[in-house]
């Protein structure tokens, strides 16, 4: 399967979203909320195979994906779309650790539980389109903790720490902050630069390292043994 190229930030003024959920009332309500917020809903789907087919046909910027779909689980949908330049925001009733980790390891950009408000979901969709990793409070730390654990497994620990010659000093600095779970606006405030500049550095880093999203950047940073800021 061919790999998808790095995904540039979506145009927020013309954000295109596909929503997948097997509960018709929830699906319709979510689509209405997004449409009411000025986000174009290019389609909906009610099962896993239908989701994969419709994403390939419509090429949305963001897929809002329920985890427990008939036919294919959410993590299976993510893997099936690994060659498509779409960001995936999981929106699930489950906040179980294994469900979250399975989805993120499969390529999901973020994970919200369905107890989030409509306004929080809309903002999470916009942030996902910008390339930010969005999580229900408490889940981001769990995901980062798992990646840190993975980085200390024998295979990773055997690799010597070494510099990243492909990156500039600023790109490396931003990579360290991305690996802590910070979004573009938070990094911009930390470094006293614009969030657009942060986004440009992140996209340049993705391109140089042949990675596709912030989840992969976190894995890369931990595998390289980069010292993360407190």
Folded structure, characterized:
The structure is a single chain. The chain has helices at 24-36, 48-58, 74-80, 97-105, 118-129, 139-151, 154-157, 169-178, 184-191, 195-209, 214-223, and strands at 16-20, 40-45, 62-65, 87-92, 110-113. It folds into two domains: 12-137, Rossmann fold, CATH 3.40.50; 145-223, Response regulator (Rossmann fold, 3-Layer(aba) Sandwich). Helix 3 runs parallel beside helix 4 (97-105) and helix 6 (139-151) packs parallel to helix 11 (214-223). The model is unreliable at 155-163 (pLDDT under 50). The radius of gyration is 17 Å and the shape is globular. Strand 1 (16-20), helix 1 and strand 2 form a beta-alpha-beta unit. The chain is α/β, with parallel strands linked by helices and 230 residues long.
What is the topology?
Elements: E1 16-20, H1 24-36, E2 40-45, H2 48-58, E3 62-65, H3 74-80, E4 87-92, H4 97-105, E5 110-113, H5 118-129, H6 139-151, H7 154-157, H8 169-178, H9 184-191, H10 195-209, H11 214-223
Helix pairs in contact: 2-3, 3-4, 4-6, 6-11, 8-10, 9-10
**Could you tell me the strand content as a percent range?**
5-15%
Counted up, domains total 2
Q: What is the name of the CATH class of the largest domain? A: Alpha Beta
**CATH superfamily grouping of the largest domain:** Response regulator
Q: Strand arrangement, largest sheet?
A: 2-1-3-4-5
User: Gap between N and C termini, in Å?
Assistant: 38 Å
Count the E strands: 5
How many H/I helices? 11
Q: Looking at CATH, which topology of the largest domain would you report?
A: Rossmann fold
* Rough outline: globular
């Amino acid at each position: 399967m061919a790999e998808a190229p790095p995904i540039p930030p979506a145009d927020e003024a013309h954000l295109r979203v596909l929503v997948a959920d097997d509960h018709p009332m929830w699906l319709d309500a979510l689509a209405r909320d997004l449409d009411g917020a000025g986000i174009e809903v290019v389609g909906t789907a009610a099962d896993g195979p239908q989701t994969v087919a419709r994403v390939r046909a419509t090429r949305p910027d963001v897929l809002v994906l329920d985890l427990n779909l008939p036919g294919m689980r959410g993590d299976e949908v993510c893997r099936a779309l690994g060659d498509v330049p779409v960001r995936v925001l999981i929106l699930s009733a489950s906040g179980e650790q294994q469900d979250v980790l399975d989805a993120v390891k499969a390529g999901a950009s973020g994970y919200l539980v369905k107890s989030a408000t409509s306004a929080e979901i809309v903002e999470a969709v916009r942030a996902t389109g910008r390339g930010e990793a969005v999580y229900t409070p408490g889940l981001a730390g769990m995901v980062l903790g798992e990646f840190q654990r993975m980085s200390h497994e024998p295979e990773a620990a055997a690799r010597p720490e070494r510099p990243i010659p492909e990156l500039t000093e600023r790109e490396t600095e931003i990579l360290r902050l991305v690996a802590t779970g910070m979004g573009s606006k938070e990094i911009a405030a930390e470094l006293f630069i614009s969030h657009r500049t942060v986004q440009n550095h992140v996209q340049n880093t993705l391109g140089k390292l042949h990675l596709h999203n912030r989840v992969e950047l976190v894995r890369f940073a931990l595998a390289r043994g980069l010292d993360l800021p407190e």
